[in-house]
Amino acid sequence: MSAPHLDVEQVSAANTAFYEALERGDFEELAGLWLTPADLGVDEEYHDPADAGVISCVHPGWPVLTGRGEVLRSYALIMANTDYIQFFLTDVHVSITGDTALVTCTENILSGGPAPEEGEELGPLVGQLVVATNAFRRTPAGWKLWSHHASPVLAGADDDEDEDNGSNPDDDGTLA
What we know:
Blueprint: H1 4-24, H2 27-33, E1 56-58, E2 65-66, H3 67-80, E3 84-97, E4 100-112, E5 125-139, E6 142-152, H4 157-165
Parallel strand pairs: 1-6
Antiparallel strand pairs: 1-2, 3-4, 4-5, 5-6
Helix pairs in contact: 1-2
């Protein structure tokens, strides 16, 4: 077993590699970052891969995807339909217990689609705020992604509640 600070560094590097591969549209690298039955010592010829550490993914607004086929197909679709994507991660926290690690973070996403007219480089850029939890498993090949769950953050939800309650703070911070 390695030192805790080294584990945190390795998990952080695996998490960063996941987002960088997605930004570059590098499907092969992205696929290699996800857990496989072989990573767990399971011979797929004799065992159902669904019984050994099935991977899962929830993209904002999507249903739960399970298994390598569904999960990797979703990333192929995202990459094929996104001309530009960049992640600015904030509030990153790594927690490790044994051979399992959780990374929670806020994904500040900037993305652009195809150009609306010929000659333009990108379509309009759109920003999105998403909170994510990435679960990793330790394997002989390093930390591999086991599950990704991302949910949109609803902008202004706190402001709406304050208005509904009639309790907006004054300039001095007191309630009216």
